[in-house]
Every structure is written in structure tokens, then in C-alpha cells.
Amino acid sequence: MNDEAWERQAKNMVRAELMRRGLSQERLVQHLSALGIEESVPNLRKKLSRGRFTAVFFLQLMAAIGVEWLQIPEAPGTPGGDEAAGEFGAQALARSDRAVAGEGRPPREGRAKRSG
Questions:
Q1: What is the pLDDT of residues 39-62, one digit of tens each?
Q2: Are 5 and 76 in contact (CB under 8 A)?
Q3: DSSP of 62-99, one letter per residue?
Q4: pTM of the entire structure?
Q5: I need a labelling partner for 45 at 20 to 30 A (CA). Which of 13, 32, 54, 71 fits?
């Protein structure tokens, strides 16, 4: 297993969250700016394209996107991890039942399901 698979998985996770919320990279830059994080659209595109960014930047992205709970895919080298790190991994993650169940949050004991 190499770092490239992990990098693809990281960028696919960000892209999947953007897809789920219908956010563009341009809008993400605006959300980052509202958090005091200045980033240009071209620079953001480069970082996401490479899949190489710090854990701090990943957390900033997730906060700017509005992610409250994140399902981490299996490690690359496993069937689920290979799908998440694959060419269409962002789409697979975005439509994943596990990721959207319960609005993307883990079930809490005694938590009532919302209706309608």
C-alpha cells in the first residue's frame, strides 16, 4: 500500500462531502473565508487535486463544509478502502448509506428518530 492511495482517499472524502451538500469549490473558499481562512480557488483546487494537505487543513475544510460527523472509509488495500480511493471514490462515498444514515451522525442510545 502506498501513500498515493491514501491521498486519493483523502481528496475523495472532501469531494464526497462537497457533493452531498451541493457545494462548489468556489463556495467552499467563501465558507473558509468566513472562518478566517484565506484560500484562493486555484490553490484549493491544487491541494484537492494532489490530495496532500495537513490534518489541520482537512479539519478546516470539514468545518467549512459543515460536517459534524465523518465516517472514515476502510484503509486502502481492502475492498471498501480501494473503492473509496478509486477513480470514482468520491461518488461512491457520497452515495454511501453508512455515511448518510442518521444524517451522517452516529446513533446515540435513546435517541428518537425524527419523522418526516
A1: 999 999 999 999 999 999 999 999
A2: yes
A3: HHHHT-S--PPPPPBTBHHHHHHHSTTHHHHHHT-HHH
A4: 0.80
A5: 71
